[in-house]
Amino acid sequence: MNGAAPVLSDPADEWYRVGPALEKLIKKNPTFGLTAKQVEDMCKYEDSVCLWTSNEGFVVTQFKDDEETGDRTLFLWVSASFDGGNVNLRRYLPFFDGVANHMKCKYIELWSSREGMGRYLAPHDFKEFYRSYRKTV
């Protein structure tokens, strides 16, 4: 995501490059649980799912509201670079802090199967939460 902040993007305009990068990510992570087509459909048809892109990569987010507490969470669902390298999402965590604040979220959450992801997220105030990582905004 090459320095510039990610921008909210239309999946119809961006899937030519998001789809192949997501396919590579799914191939490397077979427990992902969804196909690229399922993710594309969610980005197109679910109001709470957003696609963010830059020159370097993409992030798919989702807003989730807890029915019991009313607390809103910004879920950083999937992130990848277009060239198959490391997107380094943590560079853009301050940007997503702003998104979460603007959308009145109490938490930012992401899940990762990567061992040791916590050491990269801890400096950004994330705490391990069922092997996902949550931050109070």
Describe the structure.
This protein has 137 residues and is an alpha+beta fold. 31% of the residues lie in helices and 29% in strands. It has helices spanning 11-28, 36-45, 93-102, 117-121, and strands at 7-9, 49-53, 57-65, 72-81, 107-111, 127-129, 132-136. It has a 7-stranded mixed beta sheet with strand order 1-2-3-4-5-7-6, sandwiched between helices. Helix 1 packs antiparallel against helix 2. The longest helix has 18 residues, at 11-28. It is globular, with a radius of gyration of 14 Å. It starts with 6 loop residues before the first strand and ends with a strand. The model has no long low-confidence stretch (mean pLDDT 85).
Counting H and I runs of at least 4 residues, what is the number of helices? Answer: 4
Q: What's the story with the biggest beta sheet? A: 7 strands, mixed
Spatial ordering of strands, largest sheet: 1-2-3-4-5-7-6
**Class by alpha and beta content:** alpha+beta
Roughly how many Å is the radius of gyration?
14 Å
| Distance, first to last CA | 23 Å
Count the beta strands: 7
State which percent range the strand residues make up. 25-35%
Report the mean per-residue pLDDT as an integer: 85
Task: Give a brief rundown of this model.
The protein has 137 residues and is an alpha+beta fold.
Helix/strand layout:
Blueprint: E1 7-9, H1 11-28, H2 36-45, E2 49-53, E3 57-65, E4 72-81, H3 93-102, E5 107-111, H4 117-121, E6 127-129, E7 132-136
Helix pairs in contact: 1-2
